[in-house]
Amino acid sequence: MSGMVTSREAQAAQAALREKRLVALASVGAAIGLTSLKLSVGLFTGSLGILAEAAHSGLDLVAALLTFFAVRYADRPADASHPYGHEKAENLSAFLEACLLLITAGWIIFEALRRLILHEGQVDNIGWAFLVMAVSIAVDFTRSRALLRTARRLGSQALEADALHFSTDIWSSSVVIAGLFIVFLAQQLHLPDWLKQADALAALGVTGIVIWVSLRLARDTIDALLDRAPEVVLERLQTAVAGVEDVVEVRRTRVRRAGNKMFADVVVEAPRTLSFEQTHDLSERIEGVATAAIHESFPQSGTDVVVHVEPMRAPGETVQDRIHYLAELHGVHAHDIRLRDVGGRLEADFDVEVRPEMNLREAHETATRLEEDILQSDRRVSRVTTHLEAPAEQIEPRDEVTNEHTAMVRRMLAIADRIAGKGSAHDARLYQPCAPQSGAAANGATDQAGELDLVLHLTFDPDAPISQVHIWAEEIERALRLEYPQLASVVIHTEPIGE
């Protein structure tokens, strides 16, 4: 199943890449057509506004080519020399586009001021000028819609920048048309000569739009190239991560953008008593909320979140938690921890499981170091006593002999019912070590010979405190061992009535 999902994801990625390339290539074709048309009509009519638009469209062509090649390059997978991917090619493309636009704006301002001051230039054949600008608006409207729709669906910053660029072309073309219309009225109605310079004023209007778009685009791309973190994303990220259960403190959050991908590094402090699996689960939960916080501001962006969890002593850490944690640091396991309050000071007794291959000296030294660390970690603890255990790591061969000791089983159930309540004890099973020879246990001599293991199930009131249930289970175990000294191990399973 996972292989099928991966295959579908790969196919979807390839389809998205083809769509991005096609829409970028279509934009290149439209830019070539508009540039050629505007340049021809601008030279034919002598309209500086149209010539400015031709230069603008020429830069649109360069920008479209940059976008096309940037999209192809940015979608390459990460490699050894680009471990974070190639997405910043889109940011670099947008920055170069902004620089080209600003250069063009400077040339248009120079030419427009020269005409206004020296009163040069004459606009002829205005009908052709109106026609080419109408065609320009129609083409820009169509391609900006197509680019924006694809950019929003696929989350491409380069395509979105192109869409914004071409949508401003519609406004600039409208300004040129307005200037040409004023020139037309001035020629037909013999209005003052200064109105005939409306075409140059329209060119300045186009330049203002170009500069505004260019500066905004340059600011965004420079922010991305210099790894400036979006402030809104940082605030949402910190708030979201701080609200995750088990996160004690958010130490650091860092965000950087590359093309359409957001990279986030999150460092948090969490209780040191968490297990490895719990810490891993915490990291996944943080990654999930961090991704959601990023998508609130950038819904279509890809995300790459790295989470680092640092252990710390949490405010709610108990003495028992601390003993468990310190024991694990020493490579042993602590259980059955008992705390006593003696005159306002605490004394701790617990079992320590050590490796079976240790000798007594090694095990005692390990336990002693653990005891010293516990005493130093908490001034309230004045005494620590440990009991060394070596858990059996091998699988013990056993034969079930429950049916061979029916009278013993009935007696055991009666003893348990006397303490836990009638009908509480059930499903008692007896086991003994496997006989060395086949049939050796068939003579019925196993009642007194050899040790027996007992597994017993008990039911209690579901609302009974677990501490009281534990006391009852221990009392039953003591009673059973008193009557049957040959019991080697007794395992009592407690469960609520009705389970």
Commentary on this structure:
It is a single chain. The chain is α/β, with parallel strands linked by helices and 499 residues long. It is 58% helix and 18% strand. The chain has four domains: 2-225, Cation efflux protein transmembrane domain (Alpha-lytic protease prodomain-like, Up-down Bundle); 231-312, Cation efflux protein, cytoplasmic domain (Alpha-Beta Plaits, 2-Layer Sandwich), CATH 3.30.70.1350; 319-389, Cation efflux protein, cytoplasmic domain (Alpha-Beta Plaits, 2-Layer Sandwich), CATH 3.30.70.1350; 398-437 and 446-496, Alpha-Beta Plaits, CATH 3.30.70.1350. It has helices at 2-45, 48-74, 88-118, 126-154, 157-189, 198-225, 231-242, 276-297, 319-329, 360-377, 406-420, 466-483, and strands at 249-258, 261-271, 302-312, 333-342, 345-353, 381-389, 398-400, 425-433, 452-460, 487-496. The strands form three sheets. Strands 7-8-9-10 form a four-stranded mixed beta sheet, covered by helices on one side. It has a three-stranded mixed beta sheet with strand order 1-2-3. Strand 9, helix 12 and strand 10 (487-496) form a beta-alpha-beta unit. Helix 2 packs antiparallel against helix 5. It starts with a helix and ends with a strand. The model is unreliable at 1-6 and 438-449 (pLDDT under 50).
